[in-house]
Amino acid sequence: MSRLRLLSAAALLAVAANAHATSFIVTTDAVVGALKSSSDATSDASSSLRDNKIVRAARDDAASFVASNGDIRGVKLESAIDEIHRQLPQLNATDAQIAQAILAI
Description:
Blueprint: H1 3-50, H2 53-57, H3 59-67, H4 75-87, H5 95-104
């Protein structure tokens, strides 16, 4: 193989490897940034709910709701669900998911 072809192939390989590594780094940075933003928002929301007296008072009702597969709906749980929907209008969760989240807080 001629020396010019060998140098051209090596240069092309170096450029391709550099472009691939750069796109990987940019993609990784974007994914990590998005996850961090989502995690920060979730953390802020859960910490504000954790400190909410209405939500904390609903733990027993949430446990009854989960244990009965939704048959037992206490007044405190209903109040907490309303409070959570008021604080987080963008939340798209079922009552069962909210009850489980209250138990996890």
